[in-house]
Design goal:
With about 120 residues, the protein is an alpha+beta fold. It has one helix and eight strands.
Length: about 120
């Protein structure tokens, strides 16, 4: 009897975990701004994701957005965000991060570049 209770609880927990893992990915549509850290210096970073084209982003780095670029953007149900540059040059080729539980901030790292971390906050 005790074994059945333990198995029932275990099964219920596994089912709850499976259901929460299969939730739809949150939307990244909107305007985002934040910082990108290169060397030991932080510089402005912006991203705009159009709701009509949720996998595409217009990005810019530097004061006044002097380094514009485009990227593909993906977020999964676990809130893992991947931003991949559509051009094959520059410091920010692949940014990987995590969307916070509120859906307001993406924090992460940059692969193999002189810049090493970034933070973006959704703007109202």
């Amino acid at each position: 009897m005790k074994l059945r209770s333990v198995l029932s609880v275990t099964g219920a927990l596994a089912l709850a975990a499976a259901c929460s893992a299969s939730q739809p990915a949150p939307s990244l549509a909107g305007n985002w701004s934040g910082t990108i850290t290169c060397y030991s210096m932080e510089s402005p970073l912006t991203m705009i994701v159009d709701a009509a084209k949720p996998s595409q982003a217009a990005m810019a780095m530097g004061d006044g957005g002097v380094f514009p670029w485009e990227a593909s953007v993906a977020v999964d149900g676990a809130r893992a965000v991947t931003i991949k540059s559509t051009i094959q040059s520059g410091d920010a080729q692949l940014l990987t991060g995590t969307l916070d539980a509120a859906g307001a901030t993406i924090s992460g790292a940059i692969e193999r570049q002189l810049c090493n971390k970034f933070t973006l906050t959704r703007q109202p």
